Amino acid sequence: MSDISAITVNNLVKSVATQEGELTILNGINMDVKQGESVAILGPSGSGKSTLLGLLAALDSPSSGHIVLDGVAIESLNEEKKAALRKQKVSFIFQSFMLVDTLNALENVMLPAELAGISKAKEKAQAMLERVGLSHRLTHFPNQLSGGEQQRVAIARAFICEPKVLFADEPTGNLDAKNSDKVADMLFELNRESDTTLVLVTHDLVLANRCERQLLMDSGVLTESLSCEVSDEQEHVAACPQAEAEAS
Fold first, then answer.
1. Distance of CA 14 to the CA centre of its chain
2. Tens digit of pLDDT for each residue in 79-92?
3. Under a CB-based contact definition with an 8 Å cutoff, are residues 155 and 187 in contact?
4. What is the pLDDT of residues 162-193, one digit of tens each?
5. Interval 137-165: pLDDT, tens
6. How far is the C-alpha of 200 from the C-alpha of 93, rounded, in Å?
7. Which of 52, 34, 33 shows the shortest CA–CA distance to 42?
8. Which 8-state DSSP code applies to residue 151?
9. How many Å apart are CA 62 and CA 74, to the nearest integer?
10. Which of 23, 153, 174 is closest to 99 using CA atoms?
């Protein structure tokens, strides 16, 4: 892990207007993530985890505060430049996979490489799918793949452009324990080999404890969290006082 900051956040606030008045989703978030570091963001549903991830990935704009992503101040960019920043530096893995139904596995992985103008996109996509154990599924469409296979396609797609930062929103949330472990193994292996900064949102404390740091989001406030020990009886629920809230 480098001493260089991949993400720096200062006093980040996100508020939205509701019928009952203004609702503050994020309240004064501060964080610093180093290049190549892996960080898990935990917390109860509705605490603001996914909102924060969207802001860090320049998919949304804060009400106030500052985000610097790989040396670039996001608030200084217009939407066109934000899109260019995401294409150059960021990949995102969604809980619902977000594969294109009309494209097969190979085409789904090729897509971001082609959009980024990467040469030999097909060969690189084939190599990535082989890497995640899907060389025999190149021509299969998403509806012909299991949930675990779809998520592995999504991981191959996320890494093909060699992003500086990878954001993952509940990357194992729709998978059973066996597939969750396989996906997590691949995620951290590729993270280490590519020196990609990994920031993930999860309810899975087994997955979170594999990250170098754990942050806890509660009512829009982010704090450093000590990792929890996991009981033998519960693979994905931690045996600690925060477990019930975080697993909800």
1. 19
2. 999 999 998 899 99
3. yes
4. 899 999 999 888 788 888 888 888 889 888 88
5. 999 999 999 998 999 999 999 989 889 99
6. 9
7. 52
8. H
9. 10
10. 153
